[in-house]
Amino acid sequence: MDHRRGQPLARDAMAYVLAGGRGSRLYEMTDTRAKPAVYFGGKSRIIDFALSNAINSGIRRIGVATQYKAHSLIRHLQRGWNFLRPERNESFDILPASQRVSEFQWYEGTADAVFQNIDIIESYGPEFMVILAGDHIYKMDYEIMLQQHCDSGADVTVACMEVPRMEATGFGVMHVDERDRIVDFVEKPADPPAIPGQPDVALASLGIYVFATKFLIEELRRDAATPGSSRDFGKDIIPYLVKHGTAQAHRFGASCVRSESEVSAYWRDVGTVDAYWEANIDLTDVVPALDLYEKSWPLWTYSEITPPAKFVHDIDGRRGSAVASLVSGNCIVSGASINRSLLSTGTRAHSFSMLDEAVVLPNCHIGRGARLRRVVIDAGVQIPNGLVVGDDPDLDASRFRRTDKGICLITQPMIDRLTA
Fold first, then answer.
1. pLDDT value of residue 3
2. Residue 22 burial (CB < 10 Å; 0-12/13-18/19+)?
3. Alpha-carbon distance 420 to 286, whole Å?
4. Per the UniProt record, which EC number(s) apply here (predicted)?
């Protein structure tokens, strides 16, 4: 198909979301769910950002590859993402590692998670493949990246973000020439290469790739037949194409979707407890760095039918209130004080309790008189009456998962050990 500049390409593309990772740096938060299924922002999941970007960009064929503890993720996808209709040439496939190639073989790497489903991809016949990680927070118009891919004639286009050079040591870093052609790819370098003309800035890969489908399938088959390959895009496919083909960098700033209130391009890896807490708490700012209220680029998710949030009691010392906070549906703040916190769906905060800079996941109960500061409370946790967290670092560390920055992760098994 001959596409001309400005003609939408997204309807001829398939988005393939890699959502099998555990996210071990989130510790107990991913004991029962994969990282893409972790709650974010009160009512959504992390994976909703990549999927919403695809829908808002105009892509109507989506596949999601799952692997690690996928039940929570699959249930969310079935509930919230079942609106795509085959009769409109739309599709939504959940693709668990199911030994389709070999009865002994799970997904060995990110590239293998696509390779094992080549027959499903070919059955739809998309002209382009947009490969996405399912565990980052950002808003991006993939149509712009698709247009650049076609205009450049590259074998692969890799989305990159400008970061301070010495902060790029944890990323795959693109070394580019003056035309943003990738001339080298270095995984987590100690001395990251700088952008030409910008000695203090590096280009970090975001794990977002665009290929022509036929070319990608050829490369996946070549890689699968290569002894010693780890079957991974970042470790094998992209470095091979940098050396033996043409790889083009796409600057995230060119396609990042921003509302009028968003000052800079927003992309976050919330893969640590500290980063996760910070990204959620940032949403409580008067003008947050990430605008969830922009109607032109909505965040799609499973929308539960819930009653409104409720605040009760108006007595000195027992006043249900929330300041600089996000309070989701079906929350009841009953004589509790909430400050700079995020309450997910179904939270109950009982009388005389206090939450300060708390990220509370769905269906938690905060007992009477509890005082919690700088915490992440996992879903379904029952906080005992009078529990105090945030005053005594040593005591907190002995009972909960406390980070170096002083954030405490609280799960129900930790609470059970306290009350045993």
1. 52
2. middle
3. 42
4. 2.7.7.27
Quick one: DSSP state of residue 11? G
Strand 182-187 with 91-96, pairing: unpaired
Between 47-57 and 71-80, two packed helices, what is the crossing angle to 10 degrees?
A: 30
- Lowest pLDDT segment from 66-70, 327-331, 332-336: 66-70
Round to whole Å and give the CA distance between 358 and 349.
12
CB atoms within 10 A of CB 310: 14
Could you say which DSSP state residue 29 is in?
A: G
Residues in Cβ contact with 173 at an 8 Å cutoff, skipping those fewer than 6 apart: 185, 186, 187, 189, 192, 193, 202, 203, 204, 205
Q: Is 97 helix (H, G, I), strand (E, B) or coil?
A: coil
Domains of the chain listed by start with CATH number: 9-271 (3.90.550.10), 310-419 (2.160.10.10)
Instruction: List phi, psi (to 5°) of 117.
Output: -120, 25
Q: Give the pLDDT confidence of 170-204 residue by residue, as tens digits.
A: 889 999 999 999 999 988 899 999 999 999 999 99
pLDDT of residue 129 exceeding 80, the answer is: yes
Distance of CA 116 to the CA centre of its chain: 23
Interval 61-82: pLDDT, tens = 999 999 988 999 999 999 999 9
Cα separation of 164 and 416, whole Å? 43
**By the 8 A CB rule, do 73 and 37 touch?**
yes
Other C-beta atoms closer than 10 Å to the C-beta of 227 total 4
Give the Cβ contact number of residue 196 at 10 Å.
12
| pLDDT reading at 155 higher than 70 | yes
Determine the pLDDT at residue 1: 44
- Rounded CA gap, 277 and 378, in Å? 12
- The verdict on pTM exceeding 0.70 is yes
